[in-house]
Amino acid sequence: MSDEVNKLVSGFHKFRTKYFLKDTELYHQLSTEGQSPKTLIIGCSDSRVDPALLTQANPGDIFVIRNVANLVPPYEVGGGFHGVSSAIEFAVNGLKVENIIVIGHEQCGGINALLKGNTSRTDSFISSWVDIAKEAKIEVLRELPNAPEKVQLDACAKKAVLISMENLMSFPFIQERMQNHGLKIYGWFFELEQGRMLEFNYEQRKFVEI
Fold it and tell me: In whole angstroms, how far apart are CA 94 and each of 27, 61, 63, 154, 200?
């Protein structure tokens, strides 16, 4: 095995000693009773922003979906592979989560691809995927045409979080859970350089530190 894979193997053994063997009761409960997380987190695949690490969640606390740029597609039916939508459906209808949190972050490569790339290409999985947030790009280039690249990138990443939140509410079963069971949707944004987490405040219409 390569050095990098050996490092991961070593990490697993550390996990087993430090966590598993010290909390076998929790893992026994999870293995016999199953999972019942109260929160679904939709985060980015970026290696720097692991939702479980950022929130210090215990095993069984959160159900996590990760993809490029933490995007949620709008609700649609029909053919095709709906990996994100099926995971959302499982979390909401199957696990009955009470909260959904979309976490975006600084320096997002997917959002950078959206801003710089040609999302009209049909031969790129990334281009077609990040095109979900194309309205964020349009708004940023209209509102901040002369801003520094980093400012545009972070603004676009925040707007992409809001688009994902809006798309979540296009799912009928999410609307039903919100209306009848108190399901709540949150938008977070992780500032990688400063180590701060921001949350979208509906009343102030902006992200504020939590």
Answer: 21, 15, 11, 34, 27
Q: DSSP letter for 74, please.
A: P
Q: Is the model's pLDDT at 118 over the cut of 80?
A: no
Please give the backbone phi and psi of residue 11, each rounded to the nearest 5 degrees, phi first: -60, -40
Q: 97 and 16 share a domain? A: no
Tens of pLDDT, residues 42-59: 999 999 999 999 999 999
Question: Are β-strands 196-201 and 184-191 bridged in parallel, bridged antiparallel, or unpaired?
Answer: antiparallel
122-151 pLDDT, tens digit per residue, is 678 999 999 999 999 999 999 999 999 999
- Rounded to two decimals, the pTM is 0.94
Parent domain of 14:
1-34
- What is the signed CA dihedral for 25, 28, 33, 38, rounded to 10 degrees? 60
My answer on whether 191 and 170 are in the same domain is: yes
In this structure, are 18 and 116 located in the same domain? no
Question: Which residues, other chains included, contact 91 with Cβ-Cβ below 8 Å and sequence gap of 6+?
Answer: 37, 40, 63, 65, 97, 100
Nearest to 188 by CA among 152, 170, 164, 153: 164
The H or E element containing residue 198 is strand 196-201
Q: Which of 76, 111, 93 is nearest to 40 (CA)?
A: 93
